[in-house]
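Q: Aminotransferase class I/II-fold pyridoxal phosphate-dependent enzyme, please. Structure only.
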Amino acid sequence: MAEQTLLEAFNAAPYPVTGSSKWNVNQLLEAFQSADGEQDSDIYGTGKIIEEFQAKIAAFLGKPSAVFFPSGTMAQQIALRIWSDEAGNKKVAYHPLCHLEIHEQNGLHELHHLEPVLLADKSRTIGLADIQQLEEQVSCILLELPQREIGGTLLPFSELEAISAYCRERGIKLHLDGARLFEVLPYYKRTAAEVCQLFDSVYVSFYKGIGGIAGAILAGEDSFTAESKVWKRRHGGDLISLYPYIISSDYYFEQRLPKMEQYYHAAVELAELYNSCRHIETKPPVPVSNMFHVHASVPKEKLEQLFKGIYAETGVGLTRSIREVDEGNSYYEVSLGDRYLALPKVKIQEALELLDIRLAELNG
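A: Structure for Aminotransferase class I/II-fold pyridoxal phosphate-dependent enzyme:
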């Protein structure tokens, strides 16, 4: 019999820590329980169901209009293409760990022939000084809030305001990768509209902290979203109907948006418990959203074996996957939702106390 994987052990644990639910068909079934079976579907991007949802999210983001996309990858490439065409400049700037740079198979260049200019370094967020020191003219700058690949770190809001003002003075478009925008609003103590007014275009996701099955919104001025619809068709994003994505997005938006502050405070609480363990540290030390990274001075394979033992002994599943940093170090991402809120605190304390003991034994 094949050895159980960490993912299998996590899925079998009665007390999973991360996320809001299992990734299975029940996500869709739950969302459809309250749906009107007689409601007409959307057809190629038109119809009441998609148009009302687009208007609802546009209003929430404080933008004149919005377009629903099947994926954020499609939406963001299109946003940068529109700003590039408008400026007549193929150069766009973003962080070296931006999703477009590391997860999209060079799609921005292959599909749109755009030329990325990388800002800052991999260890920190983009700041105003990085933009001021740009040696090349760019059509658009993309900022990700929070910066997921470095633990969900976040710019101070005052710095964000300064960047926005600087870009507008110089005619540089500012695009928000807001895949986790909803999750940082409690830390900023701002509405989505107050954050989004600093940007010319905004992307938000409905399967991250919201927990829908898939889907994204791209929002901005009417002329921008009208052009984005043309590109959506060119990308093959105008499926004959998108209503399963829209219904689940809307349902979980209503369910989970009000809980974002609880998720944020839960992350602060859990990170403190992690940082009390030996040979463990979280990045950032104090989370600014519902997510953070846990770094361990243990090789990936050894940490996986250690975790499977903890899952079996305590019933608590800490993570579904672990990534290698180098031969002696590893890390994993924590993103909290409904599961952590329902978890008995005594169980998480038991698991982390055992983790501390096991790590101390492992590191001698």
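A: Brief note, in case it's useful. The chain has two domains: 6-22+259-363, 42-240.
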